[in-house]
Amino acid sequence: MTSPQRPRLAPADDLSAASEIDISAAIAPLLEQRYRSPIVRPSTAVDVASLIDESFPRDGQALEPLIEQITDAVDRYPRRNTHPGFFGWVAPSGLPSDPLAHAMTSALNANIIGYWSSPVGTTIEKSVVRWLAELVGLPSRAEGILLSGGSLSNLSAIASALSKRCGPGYRERGLGSFDADSRPVILCSAATHFSVRTAAAVLGLGTDAIIAIETDDAFRMRADRLSEALQQRQNVACVVATAGTTNTGAIDPLEEIATLCRQYDCWLHVDAALGGGGLMSAELRPRYRGIEMADSVVLDLHKWFFQSLSGSLLLYRDADWARQLFLETSDYLPTLEESVPEQHAFFHLAPELSRRFRALPFYLAMRCYGIERLGRNALHNVQCAEYLAELIRDHEDLELIVEPQLCILCFRFRPAGPDDLEIDRINSEIRDRIQLEGHYLMSATRVHGRPVLRVCIINHATRAEHIDGLLCSVLRIGQSLL
User: What b/e string do you get for 288-313 counting C-beta neighbours within 10 Å, with b at 16 or more?
Assistant: First the structure.
């Protein structure tokens, strides 16, 4: 009998050698671009593809020219979320500690399934969860998990609410035991993020199960209309309230909503993916009164907590309902009842199993800067929004659409003379021309069916001079279009 031949990898194919690239030197040009104008440069897909080697990568090549290729491409055709004049979509500004923290995350390559898979990673994530649960005001027994984004967090929370509403058999039977009339529904405002509709579709409820509650003049859910809906229905899976709507930054009347949910024994989920960062500020925290009564809360750290992508924290007041739905075992995973900290498993709280060490960047940032300093930056963002509102109110050619409740403001250039259609055209043109100039960016949206100029301020680098510069550009371009 011959001996088996021992496999041998050729030295040229060995992947274990460390890269000789100086990481600090490699990312220095990217960091230097962060505040450079233009924020966006117009491009076509063909333009961008011409700068990227799209050929099939059969053979390897040196890392240095690849880094240079990407650096040059994003400098030529950028979209700089980090720019202090970026007032568009809800995009993260990132913190100076993030590049190092994310490099550490990659170097460690920890899989945060549970304590046994990463003792240090699990301990750090549980610390971050505890800090933010305390910030929200949830009880000490509250638990949570960091997921990829607010959409998955909202879906997981609504699924857990269904677990409670439908009872212990929901995991096995799903919605099969409900007919069309008894099918659970979700109550939320008309301004709720579309990820709630997506969750309803994915979970098998269907978007028809979304019951939109009327909003008031400030785009907040009307508690009286919610009360009427709760009185009329016995099959409510949950109520979704929002702390910081995407379009206008509105905060629903959380305390009134929470009181109604307790009265009707209904799960309250608060989507604070955007607005939750304001909780870091002692001055802003009273605006969220009632959030501490929620059954689940979503906070996106990669939004107004200033973190780079990605980390969305889902908090549960009582995680047992999530465990009834998500707890799973197999031959290759230990059966754990989580009676001691060493048995903690994150995948019992949400659908994700393999997860990167998302808590590390936030842990380092919180320890480095402190909650109060970060909170003062969040407060400054709100003060910038309020300053812009004052400037708009004082100018006869501008119209404030709604008072800023947090860090988002919508307004219009509206001089006397032109009709509504012409004003619509001018405002859309203002936004487009400002983006082409490159120093500021506002995303397109509509309020009451008409285009508005929307300003979202969640960047720690934004200052009052950027607000002044934006408004000067709006007025200059608007007057030129007349």
Answer: bebbbbbbbbbbbbbbbbbbbbbbbb
The neighbouring-strand residues paired with 383 are none
Run of H or E residues at 240: strand 236-242
Say whether pTM exceeds 0.90. yes
- In the numeric block, which tokens belong to residue 479? 């007057």
- 232-282 pLDDT, tens per residue? 988 999 999 999 999 999 999 999 999 999 999 999 999 999 999 999 999
Query: What are the residue boundaries of the structural domains of the chain, listed by start?
Result: 103-369, 372-481
DSSP 321-357: HHHHHH---BTTB------SGGG-BGGGSSS--S---
Measure Cα distances from 140 to 114, 135, 144, 315, 316 in Å. 20, 11, 12, 12, 11
Contact 356, 180 (CB under 8 A): no
At the top level of CATH, which class does the domain 372-481 belong to? alpha beta
For the stretch 81-115, pLDDT in tens is: 999 999 998 888 899 999 999 999 999 999 999 98
CATH 3.40.640.10 describes domain 103-369: yes
Cα distance between residue 457 and residue 408, in whole Å: 6
